[in-house]
Every structure is written in structure tokens, then in C-alpha cells.
Amino acid sequence: MSKKASEHHKKAAEHHRKAADHHEQASKHHDSGSHEKAAHHAQTATGHHLHAEHHAHEATKCHSDEYGNK
Questions:
Q1: Is 70 exceeded by the pLDDT of residue 38?
Q2: Residue 70 confidence (pLDDT) above 80
Q3: Cα(6)–Cα(1) distance, rounded to whole angstroms?
Q4: HEC secondary structure over 6-69
Q5: Other CB atoms within 10 A of residue 4 CB
Q6: Measured between alpha carbons, how far is 20 from 13 in angstroms, rounded to an integer?
Q7: I need a labelling partner for 37 at 20 to 30 A (CA). Which of 14, 22, 29, 67 fits?
């Protein structure tokens, strides 16, 4: 696997972990009635999900460029 693809996989995993952390925080704030804080963490989690999707897509492109039909 190319170094570039590997880095994209690592970044995708990192953003998935960050998203999970923000979802956990959103849950805690929701349970305590802090709905504005919960919404903030939920929105931040969505951003991390989008970044993770981007990096996963870029990793796939790297694999395709390296091993795909030429």
C-alpha cells in the first residue's frame, strides 16, 4: 500500500474516533438537559464523519491508481 493511502486510512480512523467522542459528549449533554451543548457536539461529530468519508474516499482513489486497471 502506498504511503499516501496509508495516511488517508489513518486520518479516516482518527476522524471516526473523534466523531465517536463527540457523539458520546452529545449523549451526556442531552441526558443532563443541555440540549444546546448536545446539538453542538452532534454537529461537530457530523463534521468529523464527513472528514472521515473524504479520507476513506481518497484512500480508495490511491488504491485504484496503484492497483486498478491501467
A1: yes
A2: no
A3: 7
A4: HHHHHHHHHHHHHHHHHHHHHHHHHHCCCHHHHHHHHHHHHHHHHHHHHHHHHHHHHHHHHHCC
A5: 14
A6: 11
A7: 14
